Amino acid sequence: MNKISLHAALCCALAGGAFVPMNSMAAVKLTVEQRLELLEQRLNQAESDVKNAQASAETAQQQTRLAERRAMEAEQKLAQQQAQTAEIQGATTPTASKGKAEDFEFSGYARSGMLVNGKGRGGRGGPGVSPASSIGGDAHVGRLGNEKDNYVELSFIKKLQFEDGSHARFKAMLADGANNPDPWVQDNDSHHMNIRQAYVEMGDLPSFGGVAKDATLWAGKRFDRDNFDIHFTDSDIVFLGGTGGGINDIKWTPSLSSDFSIYARNFGDLGSDRYNDNDVQNVMLTANTFWNGWQWMITGMSAQGNDDLKDNTSTTGSYAYRSDNTAKQGIYSMLAYHDKSRFYGLTEGSSETAIQIGRGLGAEARQPGSDGDLTANANTLRFASYGIMPINETWDLAPSVIAQHSEDRYRQGDRYDWTTFNLRASQAITENFALLYEASWQYMNLNPNGRTYNNDGDVAAYRAVKGDFYKLTFAPTFKVGDVFDIKARPEIRFFASYMNWSKELDNYAMNDDFGSAGFTSGGNWNFGVQAEIWF
Length: 535
Fold this sequence. Notes:
This protein is mainly β. It has helices spanning 3-15, 32-90, and strands spanning 100-117, 150-161, 167-178, 191-203, 216-223, 228-230, 235-238, 241-253, 256-265, 282-291, 294-302, 329-339, 342-343, 347-348, 350-360, 379-390, 395-407, 415-430, 433-447, 452-455, 458-461, 465-479, 491-501, 524-534. The strands form 4 sheets. The protein has an 18-stranded antiparallel barrel. Strands 6-7 form a two-stranded antiparallel ribbon. A two-stranded antiparallel ribbon has the order 13-14. A hairpin with a 5-residue loop joins strand 2 and strand 3 (167-178). It is elongated and about 145 Å long. The two termini are 81 Å apart.
């Protein structure tokens, strides 16, 4: 009996009416007491029906809970069986196979284009075009509108993540450079393909703790992680590299950390084929310490046997003859400050500055350990600095300076001094077009003091010279990405460059670019187009 029927019966009873079944032959008149009794019977029946329904519902709920519990028990048993199966399989699988490919990266750098002179012939140039750059290949000038080579670096990186939380990273870099503008180059003297990097890193090792908890181990052939450069002159402030191993990110405190490495390299790997020097390797032990933007680097090196290579051949791939006092040991140190958010603390931008000193084999400040022609008494002091300063939403400026002083470098009593100032400016015109400007000036005072070189089989001497060089470049440039960022790439540039230098510099060497046919003081033009990209 539902609530509606019960309500209807009650209303009839209270109204004094009699309830007569539909199949009755005649109406029966009941007293009030009889009607109340009948109503109570019906109410009792209704309550009984409700209790029965509630009992049925509770029984159904119990059955549902029982089914859910059985399903949960079955899932737990299945998970246990799967875990036991995985454990059995793992016992027969090498640990290395547990590493899962986490990520793959492809990155690269390239520059490529044409360079012709004002007479429509192949242009001469390059950041290291001046005589000063023959001193360790270091004295670079502005590169904008001044590059004749086609160079590419392709990097392939594979990352692995392991079940214990550790990870590994493998990197290989393929590099190629050529001066020949032909679409297919077979001349090995102009075309140099190489695997420049191939190494493995390991990090987040569970067995490491304390100051080495976040440390990363590495081994192989690589560029050191702490290298940095001035892009606008294609000049490394410091470039350390070779084959070896090391550990990065030893954290003494939250703001004080150190990297340690050992590298080996020989002196013939920069281009010399005049002798077999594979058994003479310069072994370099380096410590880099970082604190709140400051970097202190110190490198000790030893090349046993380098002083015995007195066969009048250069280890750096040049035509220069070696001295009889070449070094077999060296020491090098650098103090640098990196400010990634301010232009020398004055305004928005960035800046980096370094001062470097070296002795013996350490007297090559740009690439420590790369020059085996240095004397045991060689001394070098070098200063390098650059910054990037956004002026407004249209203009960016990037000034830089490098200066170096060397004594007893290749001969006892020699002296080499040079300074380069460079200014790159970018003027955004539209969101995809900018005008680039570059001005470069270099002063040099070179006193080789009897250093000699091979000139087509004859012995010739470098001459003492001093003077200056300057270059001006204008380059309308198309860009994608952030046209207001002077370092954003890719870029496609059309350019015109004018360069000139002191007449005295033409006399430094007979096999030098300066003073060669069609490339003398008095003014030289270069024109061309170039693409540059990194990602």
